[in-house]
Structures are given as C-alpha cells and as structure tokens.
Amino acid sequence: MTMTIEPLTPAIGAIVSGVDLAQPLTDEAFATLAEALLDRQVLFLRDQVLTEVQHRDFAARLGPLHIHPIYPRSADVPEIMLLDTALNDLRDNALWHSDVSFLERPSLGAVLLARTIPPLGGDTLWASAAAAYDALPATLQAYLATLSATHDIAKSFPADRFDADTLAAAKRNNPPVVHPVIRTHPATGRKVIFVSEGFTTGIVGMEPTMADPLLAMLYTHFTRPEFTVRWKWRAGDVAIWDNRSTQHYATYDYGAAHRVMNRATIMGDRPV
Ligand code: OGA
Ligand code: MN
Question: From the CB of 42, is ligand 1 less than 6 Å away?
C-alpha cells in the first residue's frame, strides 16, 4: 500500500489513505505518519476496522497511554476510553479544549475511533493553536509569554453529570496545576497558545476582571475559521491529533441520537 497525505486546510489537518492501522506499520510507514502528525496536527483515516487491542497497540507506538480518571473505559482494554452517549452526558466535550490539560504532564495526543455516528451532526472541529499563535502581534506574543495559567479538572466535569464518588476522587487526585500560557512544542519548536475554555480557570497573579476577558479574547482568536478544520465522521474513521498544538470541540447538535467513540490517550511532557 502507498500512503498518501492530503492536506485539508493551510493551517491544519490532513486525510491519510493507504494505511491499515489493524496491521503493525513498518518503522518507515510509522515515521512518515508521525512526521505528518507533527506537521498537520490532526490526521484523519477512513474505513479502519480495529479491535480495541489493535487500537491500543497502534496508539502505544506514539507513547505510554493514559487511563482517564472519570470517563468509562473498556472492560477488556482499560486504555480504551468510552465516549458513549448511552453512558454519559457528553456535552462536556462541546467546548474547546486540549485533553487532560489538568495533569502536570498533559497529553501528547490521542487516537479516536468512531464506532457509532448519528445520522446527522456530531462533527468535531480542531484548531491549530500554533497557527493562532503565529497570527498574534509580536508585542502580544511577548506579553503572553510572561504569563502562567491554572488548569482544573473541575471545570469540565460538573457535579450534576457524573458519579459523585468518582468525581470527588478525581478532584482529590488531580489538584489544579499551573502551565505557561504559551508553550513551546517539544518536537517542532513551534510556540502555541495553551489555555482553553475546557480547563483553564485563571491567570496566575491576575484578577478575574482582567484575566477572564484576556482568556476570552484568546479563545475567540484561536477558533477563527482560518485556524480550524471540521470533520464529518463516518463509522470506522480514525482521528489522530496532537494535544500540544491543537484544541478540539465535539459539536453537540444531534439530540438523543446514539454516538460512540473510543479514545486512546498518549501521555506527554510537562509544558515549558
Ligand atoms: C475527545 C473528545 C471528540 C469527539 O475524544 O477527546 O473531546 O468527537 N471528543 O467525541
Ligand atoms: Mn477531547
């Protein structure tokens, strides 16, 4: 099979064809894919038929896997997280976020497989936090580089939607953390905006009256259409994204329709 990588927008995204993730990739094919991921930040593959074990094993080549403190997981393969509208209210993902940025060492990236997709709706959008950074005025880039922000698991997991004991334990085990507002991507050296609607609660040493509008301005800026790509899912699609250089938003516009996604999450570095 020959791998082809077709970019989707100038800033972000590519469709990869000629790859079967159920088979172990050659080192060369894997390196090509990993390089495309750094460059395009989110990759989409159609028509993948994967068991949970194959899904996990592919993701594990990108790095050690994380087990989420709140979301349900597969009984057989705990590294496979279940995003199933029959198990949870998934409106939590309908806001821009980089996964698990409430960890001291947030995620490197994720591999998401669509199992059941509503007849219409449920698209997911990704934004390039690197392209968005590049488009900021230099004076603002320099100022933002002096700031740090707090990230808190409690912000995205409200008490009324999850089991109280699970939530209490997750909050106890994951106290708020501080990350730089602008981080440098460890592999590409690109600078990226690393605050998100999903988990960022404030800016260190700044009153909310100033921090909140500054954060809101950054969220509005980096989700401009020029920095984003929108994916319309079919069952069997896989998205692989870099959580260090992107944020994503899972649209919730499909009412009571059933939607099931499986995610493997790769652990990453402490942002600097
Ligand atoms: C995720 C998420 C995306 C989706 O898997 O990290 O935010 O499309 N959901 O369900
Ligand atoms: Mn997510």
Answer: no
